[in-house]
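Ticket closed. Logging final result for Arginine deiminase.
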Amino acid sequence: MSRFYVGSEVGQLKKVLLHRPELSLRRLTPSNCEGLLFDDVLRVEQAGKEHDAFQQVLRDNGVEVFLLRDMMAETLANPEAKSWVLDRQVNPLRYGHALAKDVRSFFEEMSDKDLASHLIGGLTVAELNSSCGSPTLGVMNQTDFILDPIPNHLFTRDTSCWVYGGVSVNPMAKPARKRETVHLRSIYKFHPMFKDADFHTYFGDEDRNYELSTIEGGDVLVIGKGAVLIGMSERTTPQGVEHLARGLFKTGQATKVIALELPKLRSCMHLDTVFTQMDIDCFTYYPDIMRDDIACWELTPGDNEEIVFTSVKDGFVKAIARALDLSELRMIPTGGDIFEAEREQWNDANNVLTVRPGTVVTYERNIYTIKNMEEAGINVLTIPGEDLGRGRGGARCMSCPMEREGI
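Final structure:
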């Protein structure tokens, strides 16, 4: 039986879920990219080659790589799973009865692999080629999407996050990403690798409106020793943090959550765009955002499944050091002068994926920050990111660890 456990940010990484760019990114255009939460359009073939290089670096470092579309196709091979997924994405309330019937039939006749591609990559009116006469269809153009593409699946970190012995299947903040959660829920519920595995599900695995309780994995750092660091950002709310903390404490999987208030800015959309862990005592950070005066709370278990909230007075750095039983942390800033540092932060210099203590994967373009890391004794493995980086996500954003050793 497979084991799913993520005990830290820096222990040896063993299993990871990635998504290689494909149909959803080919459908990204200058006119739709903003609505689909991208700042630019990518050269998909080049982005694919860069992603292949990322996969290879991980495999070369002892990491087993799983790809989302393959996992989806293998999940959809189960008729119960296919029905479960389609029930949640193709229904009369979304399309009206006539069109919903045609869309459902069209999808049910596809191969599992093609269905996985279209659930992620979208479906156009022309591809459906329906003659149902529905007014819903009548007001659409041939190139309009009946099912929108989900290019943000590239960032597998956000949709679900493994924390110690369980997973949070995250209610996403933006409408363009909400269907991602259905796909990850189906994988963890039906895929043969997970179906009989022993793990907790902390949050997000219900058919309901989560209202303001949203959380995304880029804000969640499993810093180790029973502690979790969570940023309250543009996408993760205090309400979401509290719900995840309850799930962690109720199952006994964590003993402390440290919550940080972040600016609600696109440039620091998630905590891991300005702060990640590279070794047990070493972090990369962007000084303009990660100042020691940012508001910080410690959440700990109380009586009767209540949570004790304590405002941190001596800064988040000391709070993290306390949680890790360390006297101090090594804090490595984004490199270069004020202009170079801002450019490199925008290009995900601080968004590194640690594969084992002191060894990280990052985009080769961030030369000044890499220099700072190497001078601090960090082994830096570089990957190309001229096109992948246009999606505003680095190696950590593009990876969902499913098994990693603790510290």
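The first strand starts at residue 5 and ends at 6. No further action required.
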